[in-house]
Amino acid sequence: MARDFGPWSDTNGRGRVGAVDPNRGPDAGPGMYPVELTSGVVLADGTPLSIRAIRPDDAGRLSAFHASLSQWTVYLRFFSSHQDLSDEEVRRFTQVDYRDRVALVAEMDGRLVAVGRYDRLPDTTDAEVAFVVADDCQHHGIGALLLDHLARAGWSRGITGFMAEVLVGNTAMLRVFYDSHYEVEWGEQQGTVQIRFPIDPTARSVAGPAPNHRSL
Length: 216
Fold this sequence. Notes:
23% of the residues lie in helices and 26% in strands. The protein has helices spanning 59-68, 71-78, 87-94, 142-156, 171-178, and strands at 39-42, 48-53, 101-108, 111-120, 126-133, 161-167, 185-189, 192-198, 214-215. The two termini are 24 Å apart. The chain has one domain: Aminopeptidase (3-Layer(aba) Sandwich), CATH 3.40.630. By secondary structure, the protein is α+β, with helices and mostly antiparallel strands.
């Protein structure tokens, strides 16, 4: 669900569905599984991880993954106690158009350990991004990997900027954005941090994140 980002918001409806621009990304329309989003990576500690786009048949695995999360992790992700996903939520989270709405899962030895997604804000080139990592797999760089893969997927599909709303107490997630090397703009309001940044890969800093972060 898109949240209020002041001048960046548009809450009049969901993103429209159309063809992918072949000049900017894969020539695949909605409903075609994006195999190009599948990759294998190795974490800093040597653990292999696979990343791929979510599928409708991940419904049961997504429900089990969510139920396995601690109450604190769930609260940080949903801003409330939300231990069980409804059937409608599972359907919405696993059935995406792979363009205006993209969701990626990370798997370790066949186990789903993280989910990241973006949802385009209606009639814009911006999208809201969010991700959650299993409690026992946090602090291993998986969130940063998902952000990087989502940014590349979004850019190839016409998304130019990401937004997020993060609880002030979610220091691990804030660190992911801070260390991302994107030019992040920050704004704090009522216990949450509003984040906005362009995902143009040519504008991404290679020298480090600190000089490219500024306060609103």
